[in-house]
Amino acid sequence: MTLPRKDLFDLPEGVIYLDGNSLGPVPRGIGDVVQRVLHDEWGTELIRAWNNAGWMEAPQRVGDRIAPLIGAAPGTVAMGDTLSIKVFQALAAAIKMRPDRRVILSDSGNFPSDLYMAQGLIGLVDDGWSLRTPAPEDLAEAITEEVGVVMLTHVDYRTGRLHDMQAITQAAHDAGAVMIWDLAHSAGAVPVALDASACEFAVGCTYKYLNGGPGAPAFIYVRPDLIGDLEPALSGWLGHEAPFAMEPAYRPALSTERMRVGTPPVVQMAMLDHALDVWDGVTMEEVRAASMALSERFIAEVEARCPDLALASPRDPSKRGSQVSFAYPDGYAAMQAVIARGVIGDFRAPDIMRFGFTPLYLDEADVIEAARIVTDVVNSGVWREPQFQVRSRVT
Ligand SMILES: *Cc1c(COP(=O)(O)O)cnc(C)c1O
Question: Where along the sequence do coiled-coil regions lie (predicted)?
Answer without folding.
Answer: none
